[in-house]
């Protein structure tokens, strides 16, 4: 077995964690302003953005996990 590349792991894991934090912050913004966003017909667009952001974060997590299992990270 090779030694894990901790610097490379952190270079991928930290931005992924920031994506989850960004998703949570954006979710709070959307839910706090949902009535106002609905009044200007933008609530649907914000929900699509939230879903896409969550999918990107989940895909990043899966990719990091897969690379660690393969021994690349």
| Helix-strand category | mainly alpha
For the biggest sheet, the summary is:
none
Total helical elements: 3
Rg, rounded, reads 17 Å
Termini separation comes to 12 Å
Q: Low-confidence parts, pLDDT < 50 over ≥5 residues?
A: none
What is the helix fraction of residues, given as a range? Answer: over 70%
What portion of residues belong to β-strands?
Answer: under 5%
Average pLDDT taken over every residue? 95
Overall geometry: elongated
Spell out the helices and strands N to C: HHH
**What kind of assembly state do the chains in view correspond to?**
single chain
- The beta-strand count equals 0
Task: Give your account of this protein's structure.
The protein has 73 residues and is mostly helical. The chain is 84% helix and 0% strand. The chain has helices spanning 6-32, 34-39, 43-70. It is elongated and about 55 Å long.
Please render the helix and strand layout as text.
Layout: H1 6-32, H2 34-39, H3 43-70
């Amino acid at each position: 077995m090779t030694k894990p590349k901790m610097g490379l792991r952190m270079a991928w894991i930290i931005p992924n964690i920031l994506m989850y934090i960004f998703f949570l912050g954006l979710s709070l913004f959307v839910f706090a302003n949902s009535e106002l966003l609905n009044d200007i017909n933008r609530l649907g667009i914000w929900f699509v953005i939230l879903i896409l952001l969550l999918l990107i974060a989940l895909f990043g997590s899966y990719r990091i996990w897969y690379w660690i299992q393969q021994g690349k990270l």
